[in-house]
Amino acid sequence: MARNDKILVVEDDRNLLDALKYNLRKDGYDVVTAVDGVEALDVARREKPDLIILDLMLPKMSGFEVCRILRKETIVSILMLTAKVDETDKVVGLEIGADDYMTKPFSLRELLARVRAMLRRAKMVETLPGPEEALLEVGDIEVDIARHQASKGATRLELTPKEFDLLAFLARNKGFVFTRDQLLEKVWGYDFAGDTRTVDVHIRWLRQKLETDPSNPKHLVTVRGTGYKLEG
Fold first, then answer.
1. Can you list the domains of the chain with their CATH numbers?
2. How much is the pTM?
3. Which residues of 190-221 are buried (b: 16+ CB within 10 A; e: fewer)?
């Protein structure tokens, strides 16, 4: 049964590209492809996909640069692929706006599971909020769900889509502590074991934008041995 979701796969390894295309189409998705960074931007702008699977090591323009440019133009979900084991690449990719990452080689079953979760979560985020949750306040932090904007005092916060989702979820549940696995489930939509480093990177980056002193956070607090909470 067709899912009616469009996925852009950006990968210069033709064998992997064909395998991803085949399996995603078999799973019911409309798939478009690109083999270099320049083509990726062109296809993304023209086709307006619901999700992008983006390799980092690309000809003509790197996946990092593609992600950075797209994040200025769209809130589309981005799952990045990297063959590198260097943690820095993963962190940089998340910090410039990717929602999650997978390291090659990976299981196609896990990739399909993550794709389904990311698309499901994106649809939930798009649902219009009720009046009681349209504007959330935690101390001097204000989260405008309807406009997908957040501010601290008079300062507008420049957040990536996933940073906003994370902040909005914690603001809805202010004072409650959530483990990393719970945040992966509630914010990323994963009902399976994911990489909790994704959560830690987004927490760290969000603190850089929320806190006066990120090394001594007053709002986005770590509860040792448990997880994180947001308080005023």
1. 6-126 (3.40.50.2300), 131-230 (1.10.10.10)
2. 0.75
3. beeebbeebbbbbbebbbebbbeeeeebebbb
